[in-house]
């Protein structure tokens, strides 16, 4: 049987969250590493909007939103109980992810790439991003993970963006009063899943040998 195909880009936070969910659910797929400046015609043919990640499942269904890929694979298999239990707690988690993907991501881009946004001010973008992170710090004062007792959908969906934010000015990030947020990020970055999904893969071409994901060890 053909494997699902995942078009991905190693450092893209959206692709990282998708790979994390595929990894935890042990969903085998063919990983096609994309160079964003040279997107493969095969990917654009199935998803003309041209963003990664894109998953094409065994039946040819195309899923081209990272959160949808997470939900797709976790609804098939969720061995670590990443999906929040109950409609209300799923809705709360999805709302938090939405705030990350909208306001926080916008602030992150303006903080990280000020030259691309001459009309924005990097420092006020950093402040806007920090507002979201303080909200997370408040959550972590009551519980260690967004998922409650263990890390789950919300943690892995949001963590790649917080990680990017933390690397823009690590000294500044380390000096802020969000110790629980820092511990949360440190644990997730050190987690086996994150380390595995960040392994390096060469760019895909139609002639490349198939790269299976999760990576098969020899
Ligand atoms: N809403 C999309 C956003 C994905 C996205 O914007 N990915 C970026 C890379 S991090 C991308 O592919 N950008 C297109 C480009 O840079 O050409 C998702 O959740 O999958």
Distance between the termini: 22 Å
**Ligand set:** glutathione
Main sheet: strand order: 4-3-1-2-5
The major β-sheet equals: 5 strands, mixed
- What is the helix/strand order? EHEHEEHHHHHHHE
The overall average pLDDT, rounded, is 96
**How much strand content do the residues show?**
5-15%
Shape: globular
User: Into how many domains do the coordinates divide?
Assistant: 2
Instruction: Write down the CATH topology of the largest domain.
Output: Glutathione S-transferase Yfyf (Class Pi), Chain A, domain 2
Q: Give a count of the beta strands, DSSP E runs of length 2 or more.
A: 5
Q: What low-confidence regions span 5 or more consecutive residues with pLDDT below 50?
A: none
- The CATH architecture name of the largest domain reads Up-down Bundle
Structural class: alpha+beta
Number of helices: 9
In quaternary terms, these chains amount to single chain
Task: Give the helix level as a range of percent.
Answer: 40-55%
Show the helix and strand layout.
Blueprint (H helix, E strand, L loop, with lengths): L4 E4 L4 H12 L4 E5 L7 H6 L7 E3 L5 E2 L2 H11 L10 H26 L9 H21 L10 H16 L1 H6 L3 H12 L1 H6 L14 E2 L5
Parallel strand pairs: 1-2
Antiparallel strand pairs: 1-3, 2-5, 3-4
Helix pairs in contact: 1-3, 1-6, 4-5, 4-6, 5-8
The structure holds glutathione.
Glutathione binds next to helix 3.
């Amino acid at each position: 049987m053909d494997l699902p195909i995942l078009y991905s880009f190693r450092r893209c936070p959206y692709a990282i969250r998708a790979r994390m969910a595929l990894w935890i659910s042990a969903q085998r797929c063919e990983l096609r590493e994309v160079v964003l400046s040279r997107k493969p015609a095969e990917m654009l043919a199935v998803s003309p909007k041209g963003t990664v990640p894109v998953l094409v499942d065994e039946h040819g269904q195309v899923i081209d939103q990272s959160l949808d890929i997470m939900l797709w694979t976790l609804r098939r298999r969720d061995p670590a109980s990443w999906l929040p239990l109950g409609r209300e707690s799923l809705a709360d988690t999805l709302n938090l992810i939405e705030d990350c993907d909208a306001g926080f991501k916008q602030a992150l881009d303006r903080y990280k790439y000020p030259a691309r946004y001459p009309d924005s001010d990097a420092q006020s973008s950093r402040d806007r991003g920090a507002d979201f992170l303080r909200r997370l710090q408040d959550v972590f004062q009551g519980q260690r993970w967004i998922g409650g007792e263990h890390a789950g959908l919300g943690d892995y969906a949001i963590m790649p963006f917080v990680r990017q934010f933390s690397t823009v000015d690590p000294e500044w990030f380390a000096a802020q009063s969000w110790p629980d947020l820092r511990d949360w990020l440190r644990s997730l970055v050190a987690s086996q899943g994150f380390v595995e999904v960040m392994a390096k893969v060469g760019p895909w071409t139609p002639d490349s040998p198939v790269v299976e994901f999760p990576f098969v060890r020899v």
